Amino acid sequence: MDQTKVQQLECSQCLMELRSGRIISADEGFTKIFGYTREDIANGITYEQLVPCLDEKEIVAKLREQFVFSSNVCYEHTVMCKNGEVKAVCSMMEIQNTLLKGHRMLRVSSTEIAGIIELDTEAKFK
C-alpha cells in the first residue's frame, strides 16, 4: 500500500471522559470529518450523541472487558455527523494513565472506513 496515500487519510482525534463520554477536546480532523466545532464541544457533546444508534451500556461493558487486557482497543462503528450524515469509522481507543480533574480519560483516534477501503482497492488493482 502506498504510504503517501495512507498519510492522506483524514484522521481525527478527541479526548473524552471515560465514565460520562463527554468530549473534552478535539483536533481539526474531528471538525473536518464530523462537522462539530470547538464551540460545539465547549457547549457539551457526548459520545452517546455521536453514536446514538448503539446501546451505550453494551459498548461500555465490551470496552471495559477489552481494556482489562490492553490499554488500546480498535472498534468499528458509525458516527452521526453534525449535518445528520452517518459515517462508518474505525476508531483506536486508548485509556490515558493520567487523570484530568479526577476523571479517567480516553483518547479516540478515528478515520473513515470508506477511505481505508478505497486505499485497499487501489492497492489490489495496481
List the helices and strands and how they pair.
Elements: H1 3-7, E1 11-17, E2 23-26, H2 28-34, H3 38-43, H4 47-50, H5 56-67, E3 72-80, E4 86-100, E5 103-112, H6 113-124
Antiparallel strand pairs: 1-2, 1-5, 3-4, 4-5
Summarize the structure in short.
By secondary structure, the protein is of the alpha+beta class.
Structure notes:
- The protein has 126 residues and is an alpha+beta fold.
- It has one domain (12-124): PAS domain (Beta-Lactamase, 2-Layer Sandwich), CATH 3.30.450.20.
- Helices cover 37% and strands 36% of the residues.
- The protein contains six helices and five strands, in the order αββααααβββα.
- It has helices at 3-7, 28-34, 38-43, 47-50, 56-67, 113-124, and strands at residues 11-17, 23-26, 72-80, 86-100, 103-112.
- It has a five-stranded antiparallel beta sheet.
- A hairpin with a 5-residue loop joins strand 3 and strand 4 (86-100).
- It is globular, with a radius of gyration of 15 Å.
- The protein starts with a helix and ends with a helix.
- The mean pLDDT is 79.
